[in-house]
What we know:
Layout: H1 11-18, E1 37-44, H2 47-58, E2 61-64, E3 72-77, E4 80-87, E5 98-103, H3 107-116, E6 120-128, E7 132-138, E8 144-150, E9 165-172, H4 175-186, E10 189-192, E11 199-205, E12 208-215, E13 227-233, H5 237-246, E14 250-258, E15 261-267, E16 273-279
Amino acid sequence: MTEARADGASPGRGSSESLGQVSRDGARTGRHAPGTPCWVSLMAHGLTATQEFYGALFGWEFRPGPEQLGPYVRALLDGHEVAGIGQLPPDRHLPIAWTPYLASDDVDATAEAVRHCGGTVGVGPIDAGEAGRMAIASDPAGAVFGIWQAAGHRGQAVAGSPGTPVWNELLTRETASVATFYRTVFGFAEDPVVSADFDYLTLRVAGRPVASVHGAGQALPRDRGPHWMTYFEVADVDEAVDRVVELGGHVVKPARDGTHGRTATVADPEGAVFTVVRSHPAE
């Protein structure tokens, strides 16, 4: 999501619609359609400290999850699962980043499609206990994402309220080549912004906006390269930014007002970058 969106949907509305059947309290009751961002996960070095940061920022509580890749917890908001945090092995010096997982009915077939279309599968496919089956991959430009085939764990269980992921946006150099990759692998439909100086696509599943792709060109951060950005809803962006700093994080892009809400991009104490947003109500 950027300040201009192709479809007029707020990040909160787009994401909650993509969750399938949603009850009045925002809880998801159906199954994620293939291609839909269905989960976000962070691998950090200090699991306890990271839980303390996000617990204080978003009001999350935690319970243990599958540990196929090491110690791992699921974050809960009002009893609903909203995200995962895992611990990297001490000898792994990987970028600390939030990673979206895209739903799949067959993660092995999707992983093979990723390879066939020029992407890379870095982890898996592997079973995550009784929760499901997963893989971690990167697109041809290098942006990392997960693939999730649900079993006992269907993914994010609530969206729209403060403390929940509400949108995912791929920041890349240009949209054309990577859009072909995601369309072929996941079957996305695309709504481009027709503009000579703005390279932007909204990705749709079954007619619903589920994610976006922003071709940032030379404005793409050189220290990060192409990457997925997760947006978390908050009640007050400015208060959330102040809280991030109080908790040891820092500001990447200060709070600003856009067409669909107020946003700020921040980083946690280990450097994982994410965006906080106060979405305008859906019209």
